[in-house]
Give the backbone structure.
Amino acid sequence: MLIYLTLLIAGYILGSLSSAIIVSKLAHLGDPRNYGSGNPGATNILRIGGKRLAAIVLLGDTLKGFFPVWVTGYMSDYPWIISGVGLAAFLGHLYPVFFNFRGGKGVATGLGVLLGFNWLLGILVLAVWLFVFGYKKISSLSALSAAIAAPFLAWWLISVPAICIVTTIMALLSLWRHRSNIARILNRREDGF
């Protein structure tokens, strides 16, 4: 039991490492929460720091979701432990202990968790994001579409209750974190990318 608790805490701590804030500080951009959209994520880093830095943030945020799930999968066969660690990493990104609990919206970290659960699930959710972005060129709308699709794809592909429930929780949290974007989309005032 102690090792599972350690894995949950480690997942949350790893999730709390904000790639956007770390990369911004290393690149002397300051805290990304004070610029652009105010969100510490790859899209905001793209706005304030360019494509190279955004790609680094995207990779970092995805890996911090994937890695804890992947490691836990090698140490445990229990879906509730594996999915719990994934949720812990996701919550760490949203509410990071190292950054006054002001985190991102969880898009890339959530993708990493889903890839850790099942690579095909992650790929299909990414495909939804890419399809909507290719059509509308609005990152937040793409993220919302992917979040809505994720639980349905999880139930269809995997049907493991623990993973499907955690995927649904992550989707709902992502929708909540995008509530200002939803309002702007409904008012037709949301900017592209």
Remarks:
- The radius of gyration is 16 Å.
- The mean pLDDT is 92.
